[in-house]
Specification:
Strand content: under 5%
CATH class of one domain: Mainly Alpha
Oligomer: single chain
Number of helices: 23
CATH topology of one domain: Growth Hormone, Chain: A
Shape: globular
Structural class: mainly alpha
Number of strands: 0
Distance between the termini: 19 Å
Length: 520
């Protein structure tokens, strides 16, 4: 790309109030985009019944959004060079708000799909735009650290808030409000963006010289990957359909990367700090999205709780993120980013292990402190890696680097959820077989695992009585499979430690205190 620095420039000289007003508007857009993924999850059955969609197609309400979002995220740098920050934000958030209205007014499957794709693409633009703006709007100072922390914890607070928000809206109003809640904040943020964000050039010439084949191939690659991950748990990871989808994803990705003038700046990954930062981002996406996913699965399918009840339990992690964020900002000024990141992933692993011994009777008290641990660790897993990966990137490419950093986190989350589903699918029946053997060989342990008195445990030879407790056996075996998930996630969380060791000392990881410098 030529003359990039003339298109993407810093705006550190803006008045502080205007900088923060624009940044808050950007954060509102990002929060809405991420919230809209999780807010719908708890109400899919309600939407299915209202629109007569069918359970077999209902998951596409989520998948269509995620595919469009993942395609949009890595091209944020390109879009920034073409439209500039203000035009891109106002256009994307305006489109997102319009699509939200369209979703609420949908009367069938296909019109809902069209609006969800539009909504997902616009949301995919809004998410990395915040992390680009951190380095474009704020000088390297405490202000930049504060902005990074605010953006980071909002990015993970939104999925935590989603279930309780969705459950409350559906229970007290209707499923339409899952989308209509975006309208007022969307319009307010659009107006704030128009007023506060700096103007930029509209670079028409870049559109004419763009390698559209490279861009199309990359989009197809991501779409095939997400669909493959969606189908893998049910069809099998080695099934012909899934293997074909993965092979197609790999082939189109290779074609996109090998193009002479690739639209996506893959060469930025040659930078050591960015490439290792992306690995850490992938790991965080994997463990964070997976943990947020499997806890509601346990409470919904084992304990039979409502979406609102689940949301009220899982909100503890989000509240702790808010409490811990200011302390993370302070620590980031005085300690090496690698040390803080290592501490964050260790604490996160501890929080995961605290949930690795759930039983069929486990409730809110049994998961509360584990969520507090994970909530306290999240900011440490986000802020220092963002600084390591992006703080010293040239201004002209910081948006492209931000896109890569964010898309690998989402891909990590998608892979993590697919693997969690696979573990529950495959390990559940295995644990059921072990439990059946335990009923015969160790009745007291079997009764305790099922959560019933020993004298009510049927004889293993009484087939009819065993059938009567089959629901209990399924719940207990699913609980054990979910415990396997917790152990797996804890092990993956600790994988961050060798990654940080291999990274070694990097300039962007050094403590911020006393080293504020300008990169303009």
């Amino acid at each position: 790309m030529t003359n990039e620095s003339a298109v993407i420039t810093t705006h550190h000289d803006l008045p502080r109030l205007r900088r923060w007003a624009g940044y808050i508007a950007l954060c509102v857009g990002m929060f809405m985009a991420i919230l809209d993924i999780q807010v719908v999850v708890t109400s899919l059955k309600t939407i299915e019944e209202a629109l007569n969609i069918g359970a077999d197609r209902m998951s596409w309400v989520q998948t269509s959004y995620l595919i469009a979002e993942v395609i949009a995220i890595p091209i944020i740098g390109l879009l920034m060079r073409v439209f500039g920050m203000k035009r891109l934000f106002v256009g994307a958030l305006g489109l997102f708000t319009l699509a939200s209205i369209g979703c609420a007014l949908s009367i069938g499957f296909w019109d809902l799909m069209v609006w969800r794709v539009i909504q997902g693409f616009a949301g995919g633009v809004l998410i990395p735009l915040v992390f680009s703006a951190i380095f474009l709007l704020f000088p390297r100072s405490f202000e930049q650290t504060l902005a990074t922390t605010a953006g980071g914890f909002l990015a993970v607070l939104a999925p935590t808030m989603g279930p309780v928000t969705g459950g409350w809206l559906t229970e007290h109003y209707s499923w339409h409000w899952l989308f209509l809640i975006n309208v007022v904040p969307g319009l307010v943020a659009v107006i704030a963006g128009l007023i506060a964000l700096p103007p930029g050039r509209f670079n028409r010439g870049l559109i004419r010289t763009l390698d559209w084949m490279s861009l199309l191939a990359f989009g197809v690659s991501l779409a095939l990957l997400i669909v493959g991950l969606k189908e893998a748990p049910s069809r099998g990871w080695l099934s012909p359909v899934v293997m074909t989808l993965f092979a197609g994803s790999l082939a189109t990705l290779a074609y996109s990367v090998m193009r002479k003038d690739a639209a996506i700046m893959f060469h930025l990954l040659k930078d050591r700090a960015l490439s290792f930062g992306c690995i850490l981002s992938f790991l965080l996406g994997f463990i964070l999205f997976s943990s947020v996913y499997i806890l509601p699965v346990f409470f919904a399918f084992v304990r039979g709780m409502t979406p609102l009840e689940i949301g009220l339990i899982t909100i503890a992690m989000g509240v702790m993120q808010i409490v811990a964020a200011p302390f993370t900002v302070l620590l980031d000024r005085y300690f090496d980013a690698r040390v803080l990141t290592a501490a964050g992933f260790i604490v996160f692993a501890a929080g995961l292990l605290m949930n690795a011994n759930l039983t069929v009777s486990s409730g809110e008290p049994d998961v509360f402190w584990a969520q507090i641990m994970r909530g306290a660790a999240v900011a440490l897993c986000i802020l220092p890696p963002i600084r390591m990966a992006l703080a010293l990137q040239p201004i002209a490419v910081v948006s492209d680097a931000s896109g890569l950093f964010n898309v690998v986190r989402n891909i990590g989350g998608a892979i993590g959820i697919a693997i969690m589903d696979t573990v529950m699918f495959t390990r559940g029946p295995s644990h059921a077989d072990l439990l059946m053997d335990r009923i015969a060989t160790n009745p007291p342990a079997a009764a305790a695992q099922l959560g019933i008195p020993l004298d009510t445990l049927p004889s293993p030879d009484d087939a009819m009585s065993i059938m009567g407790i089959m629901d209990l056996i399924q719940n207990a075996s699913l609980t054990e499979a979910i415990n396997d998930c917790w152990w797996l996630l804890a092990a993956l969380s600790l994988m961050a430690l060798p990654v940080l060791w291999l990274l070694g000392p990097v300039e962007s990881a050094r403590p911020l205190k006393g080293r504020y410098t300008s990169r303009d």
